Amino acid sequence: MRKIKWVLVAVTALSFLVARGLYANHRAGYYTPAGPETIHRTIPGAISTDATYDAGEYPIYYPELAPGDGKDEVENNCELCHSPRYITMQPAMSAEAWSAEVTKMRKTFGASIPDDTAQKIIQYLGTHYTPDTRKR
């Protein structure tokens, strides 16, 4: 029994030392064990206190939807929840797939789009964003 107790003490002490070493590496900025293939970041010698930084305006890509009957319905209904980028970044889909997407937006996500407007949106997307009609 005494032997098991000393083994447990030794294992606990060893675990503590290993954890402390890993923590020390973490505190120093090293997150992986050092090795010949490991590249470590260097700490700058002096940090400039008179540096100035400037950031320009964040560029926002706002794609133009294809002109056509139903574009206004898309802009007035779909853009309440997401930008037109969400439409234009989709892979080219068949008219049936677009119909399923609009149905999903209405039934699953709760988009309050009336039936007649939904049909115009489906017609528009199925006309302008299919594999055959999508701009390349």
Written account of the structure:
This protein has 136 residues and is mostly helical. Among the domains are: 1-33; 71-128, Cytochrome c-like domain (Cytochrome Bc1 Complex, Chain D, domain 2). The protein has five helices and no strands. The protein has helices at 2-27, 71-77, 85-88, 95-107, 115-128. The mean pLDDT is 79.
Which labels suit this protein?
136 residues, mainly alpha, Cytochrome Bc1 Complex, Chain D, domain 2, 5 helices
Average of per-residue pLDDT values: 79
Radius of gyration: 30 Å
Series of H and E elements = HHHHH
| Gross morphology | elongated
Number of helical segments with 4 or more residues? 5
* CATH level-1 class of the domain at 71-128: Mainly Alpha
Give the strand content: under 5%
Distance between the termini: 77 Å
CATH topology of the domain at 71-128: Cytochrome Bc1 Complex, Chain D, domain 2
Please bin the fraction of helical residues. 40-55%
| Broad structural category | mainly alpha
List unreliable stretches of 5+ residues.
none
Q: What is the CATH homologous superfamily assignment of the domain at 71-128?
A: Cytochrome c-like domain
Number of E-type strands? 0
CATH architecture of the domain at 71-128: Orthogonal Bundle
The main β sheet shows up as: none
What's this model, at a glance?
The chain is mostly helical and 136 residues long. The chain is 47% helix and 0% strand.
Topology:
Elements: H1 2-27, H2 71-77, H3 85-88, H4 95-107, H5 115-128
Helix pairs in contact: 4-5
